[in-house]
Amino acid sequence: MLVAAGGALGAVLRFFLTNISKSLFLSGIYGTFSVNIVGSFLIGYFITSDFGTNLSENFIKFFLIIGVLGSFTTFSAFSYEVVDLINSKKYIISFAYIFISIFICILSAYLGTLLNKF
């Protein structure tokens, strides 16, 4: 139940953020990029968090990390956008998008883990 509820919330949050991004930038790439960076950072943060008695470990793991953030971040949309760029013969943009997304998302997850060390 925690994963399902979190997944529904994450999907709705992703939908709103990507639509806001599309209205600002006229492209879904920026929305997907944004949610993946924010989600990666928060996953790193929550994985290393110690909330003590305020939140249960199951709530953090199943609702927040697997449910909300697993649904909020989206590799399938990222993959679709890369294939769409390649099909549009925008090769440099597609490979830059791949490299920047992977690098920034991993860096964001790492920065999220560092936040808990301070």
Written description of the protein model:
By secondary structure, the protein is mostly helical. The chain has one domain (2-115). The chain has helices at 2-25, 28-47, 57-72, 75-87, 91-115. The chain starts with a helix and ends with a helix. The mean pLDDT is 90.
N-to-C terminal Cα separation, in Å? Answer: 33 Å
Oligomer: single chain
Radius of gyration: 15 Å
| SSE order | HHHHH
Runs with pLDDT <50, length 5+? none
How many helical stretches?
A: 5
* Count of distinct structural domains: 1
* Shape, principal axes of CA atoms: globular
Secondary structure: number of strands: 0
Fraction of residues in helix = over 70%
Structure classification:
mainly alpha
Largest beta-sheet details: none
The proportion of residues in beta strands is under 5%
Which short descriptors sum up this protein?
single chain, 118 residues, mainly alpha, 5 helices, 83% helix, globular
Can I get a quick summary?
The chain has 118 residues and is mainly α. The protein has helices spanning 2-25, 28-47, 57-72, 75-87, 91-115. The longest helix is centred in the last third of the chain and has 25 residues, at 91-115.
List the helices and strands and how they pair.
Elements: H1 2-25, H2 28-47, H3 57-72, H4 75-87, H5 91-115
